[in-house]
Write a structure and sequence with these properties.
Shape: elongated
Oligomer: single chain
Structural class: mainly alpha
Helix content: 55-70%
Number of strands: 3
CATH superfamily: Transmembrane di-heme cytochromes, Chain C
Low-confidence stretches: none
Order of helices and strands: EEHHHHHHHHE
Largest sheet: 3 strands, antiparallel
Distance between the termini: 10 Å
CATH class: Mainly Alpha
Mean pLDDT: 88
Strand order of the largest sheet: 1-2-3
CATH architecture: Up-down Bundle
Radius of gyration: 21 Å
Strand content: 5-15%
Number of domains: 1
């Protein structure tokens, strides 16, 4: 899908700047709904984890992390489960809407990480984390961003599958079996949560490094003065 571009003229100075329509409405909607959903899912998930903070046997129980109640959502196990299951469906729904739009509009070509993007990952890592030269931008998303967003989508799918295996271990016993059983499914779900938190941290770093215009584009859809040649 080509990136639509317009020129904006400042009424006072007459200065002309270019703006690219980078994020369609559905992408922006799903982005913010997912952001809220992940916040609630992580918080309520940690409250659920507080009920049995171990991955071993219950007797004797060896707690892995005594997570503070003040940093969790739900107040108690029952409340946390209600929050978690409610926002699970919102998360799945927005994810399916996002996937459907990407596939049927062809917009996925902008964000999907493919083999030809592999050589461009290290130059971007060197630029972001080791103060190396900035590679020239040729597309709306650089190879490292594509890798991060594609990985985040995979993490999202796996988090849903492991969550279903934990939620309905009898009805979806085959799914729990594929993950090594209920206890391992619970462990994978926990690790995937931290992987997603790691992605969010890296995502926020990228947003800061790319500047204010990059953040505004996820609110309005339009990005002023894009680094890449818009079409």
């Amino acid at each position: 899908m080509a990136t639509r571009a317009i020129e904006i003229e400042n009424a006072k100075t007459g200065e002309v700047t270019e703006a690219a329509y980078e994020h369609p409405l559905i992408v922006r909607l799903c982005h913010w709904v997912n952001a809220i959903s992940l916040f609630v899912l992580v918080g309520s998930g940690l409250q659920i984890f507080r009920a049995f903070p171990s991955f071993g046997a219950k007797i004797p129980q060896q707690n892995l992390i005594d997570w503070p109640k003040s940093l969790a959502i739900g107040g108690w196990l029952g409340g946390a489960l209600q929050w978690h299951l409610t926002f699970m469906w919102i998360y799945i729904g927005s994810g399916l809407l996002y996937l459907g739009y990407q596939v049927f509009s062809g917009n996925y070509k902008q964000v999907l990480f493919v083999p030809r993007d592999i050589p461009g990952v290290w130059p971007m890592v060197r630029h972001y984390f080791f103060f190396g030269p900035k590679p020239p931008a040729t597309e709306a998303y650089n190879p490292l961003q594509k890798h991060a967003y594609t990985t985040a989508f995979v993490l999202g799918v796996l988090s849903v599958l492991t969550g279903i295996a934990i939620w309905k271990p009898v009805q979806f016993s085959w799914l729990a079996w594929m993950m090594g059983g209920f206890h391992y499914a619970r462990l994978w779900h926990f690790l995937l949560m931290w992987a997603m938190i790691g992605f969010i941290f890296g995502h926020l770093v990228m947003v800061v490094l790319h500047g204010w215009n990059n953040f505004v584009s996820m609110l309005t859809g339009w990005k002023k003065e894009p680094e890449y040649p818009a079409k």
